[in-house]
Amino acid sequence: xxxxxxxxxxxxxxxxxxxxxxxxxxxxxxxxxxxxxxxxxxxxxxxxxxxxxxxxxxxxxxxxxxxxxxxxxxxxxxxxxxxxxxxxxxxxxxxxxxxxxxxxxxxxxxxxxxxxxxxxxxxxxxxxxxxxxxxxxxxxxxxxxxxxxxxxxxxxxxxxxxxxxxxxxxxxxxxxxxxxxxxxxxxxxxxxxxxxxxxxxxxxxxxxxxxxxxxxxxxxxxxxxxxxxxxxxxxxxxxxxxxxxxxxxxxxxxxxxxxxxxxxxxxxxxxxxxxxxxxxxxxxxxxxxxxxxxxxxxxxxxxxxxxxxxxxxxxxxxxxxxxxxx
Length: 326
Hints:
The chain is of the alpha/beta class. Helices cover 41% and strands 18% of the residues. It is built from 11 helices and 11 strands. The chain has helices at residues 19-32, 43-48, 82-94, 106-119, 143-164, 179-188, 201-210, 232-243, 265-283, 303-306, 315-324, and strands spanning 6-11, 36-40, 52-55, 99-104, 123-127, 167-172, 192-194, 220-225, 249-253, 289-294, 297-302. Strand 7 (192-194), helix 7 and strand 8 (220-225) form a beta-alpha-beta unit. Helix 1 packs parallel to helix 9, helix 5 (143-164) packs across helix 6 and helix 6 packs parallel to helix 11 (315-324). The radius of gyration is 22 Å and the shape is elongated.
């Protein structure tokens, strides 16, 4: 195995609060160990367009508290082609980069897996996504901050929902994963969470209405994952209008505010631990693994397992929402 002298670091896919803390940790841990660091702008696209610059310790000063990513991020269709990846590899080698640390979600890790297989490059991934949908880690970078953003928004919506005695559907991110909706519902005291992992959206809505959301309350808030199967919050509200006209339903779509903001202490600590562990993994000769946290301990999961979608919603939390909403 070739000796690593310089690593490249990039962020890809959707941004997540805490990415900057991870960039900072990777950069300083690498420098601490005597390695050079190259920052790659705009994810895999930056490898193709050769947007690569030297990173020093002071390059990552005063960023731990900032949301977004100083390396920027972009989707890159060219990287999905063999020709695009070949160009990316040639630019990477010309820049003297021996290994990569990539930060992002399942699309980012899928790209890393293909790239590593094609060119035999040591790559370590950090789970950076607010959806918390990657196997191999209990929580992902950005998830806690997004959850807190949701809770803050729902707390404010509760005031107007109660004043007008309305049913509010609040749409949160998580197209294929209901972690934000479910745990947001628990934390905010919402009456229900409609998530992809449960039965069809129709069944969940019918159950909510049949249970009589106003039996003990004069208003209700339902968190809805942006699941195409249900039509999201707009689709559910339209159904209420047509099928249950006695209820006054309103919709709030939180959208991209969930991705923004200063990361919480939990996300800063998680990103810092995982970032330093990524460098340690490369030192140990590990490759093509995602660094995660399980039961408070650092773990390394092969890319194929991290992408396996075996992480499941806790049914006990689904029952908890029902129990506490009576």
